[in-house]
Design brief:
By secondary structure, the chain is an alpha/beta fold. It has 8 helices and 10 strands. Strand 9 and strand 10 form a beta hairpin.
Length: 214
């Protein structure tokens, strides 16, 4: 079994970037939408300039932002991936995709209609992030959805050839229950934190679980 891809999202300080640099994460993410993890693009760009992340791709997370806003931020940060975490319609995502050179991922909350929505976006996006649905929040809540539905998302990803990452409440204690479903990737934020900052020990514990049975 191959190790699932691993995204470390919500970096919010230079120290977080330093911590990420020594991790096994394949992707790192910065939040540019209103949230407790929001950062300024100039800050994120300066951290990355001082601390290179070889082998890691950078994702920029937006919520209901215009193509102009995304383009402006991307001109400063130069990410590899644009992650759309709001209520962007397929038409809006297409506009953003047309305006940007970067890959575009769409985050969707888990519910009874998620698979149908994935079909609506499948011809547009380069990846999906499936997260827990929490009223009044767009992600990064630490809440977990019913993982018994993960095999449906894994199957969709394999059949469509589109990467699907699972997010929401993943931590060193419960990740082994998720890995039995062999997701393409996992997306972590609060589960890799201690006192609101990315924590090396929690990351090591997570990585140890990710490497089991590989």
């Amino acid at each position: 079994m191959n190790r699932p891809r691993f995204k470390l999202c919500g970096l919010q300080s230079e120290q977080d970037v330093i911590t990420a640099s020594s991790s096994q994460a394949d992707y790192v993410g910065f939040v540019f939408a209103e949230s407790k993890r929001q950062v300024k693009p100039e800050d994120a760009a300066s951290w990355l300039e001082r601390h290179e992340l070889p082998g890691k791709k950078v994702a920029a997370l937006f919520v209901n932002a215009s193509p102009q806003e995304i383009k402006q931020t991307s001109s400063v940060l130069r990410p590899d991936i644009i992650q759309l975490h709001g209520a962007e319609s397929p038409e809006q995502v297409q506009q953003i995709k047309d305006a940007m050179a970067e890959d575009v991922w769409k985050a969707l909350p888990h519910n009874d209609y998620t698979l149908e929505k994935m079909k609506d976006y499948a011809s547009i996006v380069d990846g999906f992030v499936i997260d827990a649905k929490v009223k009044g929040a767009w992600g990064g809540t630490g809440q977990q959805f019913d993982w018994s539905h993960v095999p449906d998302y894994v199957t969709f990803g394999k059949e469509s050839g589109i990467p699907v990452l699972i997010a929401g409440g993943i931590n060193p204690t419960n990740i082994k229950k998720l890995l039995v479903y062999e997701p393409w990737g996992v997306d972590l934020s609060s589960g890799a934190e201690k006192d609101g900052r990315k924590d090396k020990q929690r990351l090591r514990d997570l990585e140890e679980e990710l490497m089991k049975n590989v």
